[in-house]
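Hi R.,

As promised on Friday, here is the backbone we talked about, encoded as C-alpha cells. Could you run it through your design pipeline when you get a chance and send me back a sequence?
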C-alpha cells in the first residue's frame, strides 16, 4: 500500500528538524593515552571527594584511526588506558561550541595560550564547568607552574561560551528523505557545516517486511543519492542507512561497560553513523519522538500530526543489555484527529545505565504498532554523594529514602530513635556508584521522631523523619 503525501511531509519535518534523533552513532573509540594538558587537583566539594587527574586532550583510536583527540566530559568518573567508548549521537550545546572553536580543532585564534598544554587544560576546566559545575576556585593545583594564568584563561573561555555557545546544535550528516513518489526515498549527506558532500558505499537495510530496489547507494557532489523504491513494506518496517560520514566535534562518547565515563570528540572527524525511519501506512502519524534526561528521570515527548482510531500508547523500556521490553506506563490517545497532538511521559528514579524506549500505539480494535526512540538514553553516575529527605514524610508505616554514591564503596544507612539508639539497618555493605532508593518499613516502631544516617569513607549525613500512626 502506498503512503499518503502527508506521511512524507511529516518525516521530512522529523528528519530535518529532529537531527539528534534521526541518527545513531556506531563508531567506537579506545583510549590509548593523553596528549596536551596538565595534571589537575580538585577540591572535594565538586565530586564528593578530592579528585586528581589529567585535564586536557585525551588520545583515542576511533574505528581504527589513531590519534583522534577527545576531552573528558565528566570530571567525577575515571577512565583508563584501554577503556572503550561509543558514539551516543547526543551532546550538550557548550561542548559543540568549545570543541569547534578552540584547540585542537583550531590552532590559532585570539587569546590562545602560547603553550598548548596550558590551553588544553584551560579548555578542559571550561568543559567541566558546564558538565560538573566546576569553578576555577575549586581547582587546588595545576602542574606546570602556570596555574594562575590557566585559571584566568579558563574563565575567559567560560565567559565566551556563556555569551556565544549556549544554543549550538549539530548537523545530521546522513538522512533518509522522502521521494516524489510515495514509495520512494533518497539519502542526503552533508558535512558538519551543513554543506552537501559526496559519500560512497551507503548500506541500506529494511526489517519487518518489504524489499528495496537497491541496498547500496552513493551520494553525488550535491549530497543526494539516486531514488530507492520500497515494495511490500508493512506498518512497522524499519529502513536504515549506514555509512562512514563526518562526526561533529562535541559529540558525546559514553562508556560501553558499567562505568558511564563520558568523553567529547575534540574535533570533527569521520566514523560510522546510521539514519533510521519507520516505513508504512499508519493509523497514527508520529512527527517527533524525543527524550530529555534530568538527574535520574527521563522525560519522553512525542507529537502526532494525525490520528485515526487511537486508543493510546503503552510506554515500554528495556536496558541496553537486555532483550526484554517492560511496559512502564500508558498515555491515552485522542481517538481521531487531523491536527497535531503532543504527549509526554516521565520515567523516574532510574539507576545508572543505558536504556532504550519505544511506544506501543494501540487502536480501539486492539491492533498495535511500535515507534522506537532512535537514541540510547544514558543515566550517568552521580557527581557527588547525596542523602535525600525521605518521602513521604511524615509517613505510616513505610517511606522511601534515596541516596547517591559518587564512587564504588561501602555504605551504611541506619535509623536511630531520638535517644540515639539504633533501631534499624537499611543498607550495610558495598555498592557501586549510582542512584539508590530504599524502602523503610517502620511497622514495628512507635510514633515519633527518628533519624537516619548515611556513612561512607568520604561522606556522612544525618536527616530527620517523622512516623505517625
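Update: got your reply. Pasting your designed sequence below so it's all in one thread:
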Amino acid at each position: 500500500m502506498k503512503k499518503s503525501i502527508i506521511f512524507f511531509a511529516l518525516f521530512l519535518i522529523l528528519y530535518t528538524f529532529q537531527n539528534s534523533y534521526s541518527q545513531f552513532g556506531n563508531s567506537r573509540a579506545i583510549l590509548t593515552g593523553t596528549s596536551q594538558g596538565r595534571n589537575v587537583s580538585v577540591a572535594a566539594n565538586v565530586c564528593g571527594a578530592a579528585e586528581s587527574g589529567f585535564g586536557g586532550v585525551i588520545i583515542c583510536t576511533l574505528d581504527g584511526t589513531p590519534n583522534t583527540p577527545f576531552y573528558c566530559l565528566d570530571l567525577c568518573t575515571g577512565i583508563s588506558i584501554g577503556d572503550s567508548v561509543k558514539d551516543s549521537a547526543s551532546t550538550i550545546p557548550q561542548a559543540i561550541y568549545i570543541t569547534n572553536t578552540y584547540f585542537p580543532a583550531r590552532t590559532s585564534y585570539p587569546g590562545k595560550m602560547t603553550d598548548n598544554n596550558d590551553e588544553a587544560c584551560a579548555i578542559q576546566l571550561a568543559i567541566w564547568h558546564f558538565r560538573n559545575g566546576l569553578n576555577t576556585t575549586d581547582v587546588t593545583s595545576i602542574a606546570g607552574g602556570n596555574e594562575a594564568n590557566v585559571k584566568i584563561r579558563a574563565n575567559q573561555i567560560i565567559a565566551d561560551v556563556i555569551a556565544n555557545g549556549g544554543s549550538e546544535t549539530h548537523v545530521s550528516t546522513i538522512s533518509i528523505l522522502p521521494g516524489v513518489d510515495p514509495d520512494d526515498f533518497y539519502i542526503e549527506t552533508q558535512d558538519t557545516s551543513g554543506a552537501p558532500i559526496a559519500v560512497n558505499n551507503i548500506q541500506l537495510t529494511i526489517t519487518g517486511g518489504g524489499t528495496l530496489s537497491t541496498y547500496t547507494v552513493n551520494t553525488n557532489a550535491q549530497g543526494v543519492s539516486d531514488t530507492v523504491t520500497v515494495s511490500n513494506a508493512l506498518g512497522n518496517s524499519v529502513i536504515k542507512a549506514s555509512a562512514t560520514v563526518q562526526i561533529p566535534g562535541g559529540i558525546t562518547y559514553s562508556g560501553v561497560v558499567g562505568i558511564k565515563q563520558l568523553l567529547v570528540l575534540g574535533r570533527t572527524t569521520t566514523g560510522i553513523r546510521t539514519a533510521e525511519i519507520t516505513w508504512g501506512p499508519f493509523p497514527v502519524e508520529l512527527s517527533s519522538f524525543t527524550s530529555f534526561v534530568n538527574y535520574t528521570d527521563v522525560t519522553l515527548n512525542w507529537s502526532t500530526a494525525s490520528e485515526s482510531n487511537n486508543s493510546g500508547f503503552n510506554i515500554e523500556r528495556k536496558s541496553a543489555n537486555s532483550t526484554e521490553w517492560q511496559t512502564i506506563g500508558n498515555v491515552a490517545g485522542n481517538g481521531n484527529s487531523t491536527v497535531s497532538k503532543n504527549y509526554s511521559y516521565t520515567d523516574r528514579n532510574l539507576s545508572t545505565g543505558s536504556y532504550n524506549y519505544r511506544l506501543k500505539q494501540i487502536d480501539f480494535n486492539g491492533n498495535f504498532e511500535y515507534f522506537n526512540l532512535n537514541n540510547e538514553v544514558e543515566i550517568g553516575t552521580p557527581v557527588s554523594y547525596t542523602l535525600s529527605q525521605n518521602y513521604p514524610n511524615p509517613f505510616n508505616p513505610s517511606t522511601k529514602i534515596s541516596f547517591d554514591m559518587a564512587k564504588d564503596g561501602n555504605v551504611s544507612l541506619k535509623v536511630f530513635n531520638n535517644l540515639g539508639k539504633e533501631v534499624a539497618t537499611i543498607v550495610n555493605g558495598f555498592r557501586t556508584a549510582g542512584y539508590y532508593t530504599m524502602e523503610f518499613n517502620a511497622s514495628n516502631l512507635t510514633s515519633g521522631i527518628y533519624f537516619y544516617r548515611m556513612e561512607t569513607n568520604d561522606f556522612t549525613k544525618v536527616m530527620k523523619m517523622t512516623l505517625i500512626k
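One thing I noticed while checking it: Residues 1-22 have pLDDT under 50 and may be disordered.

Thanks again,
M.
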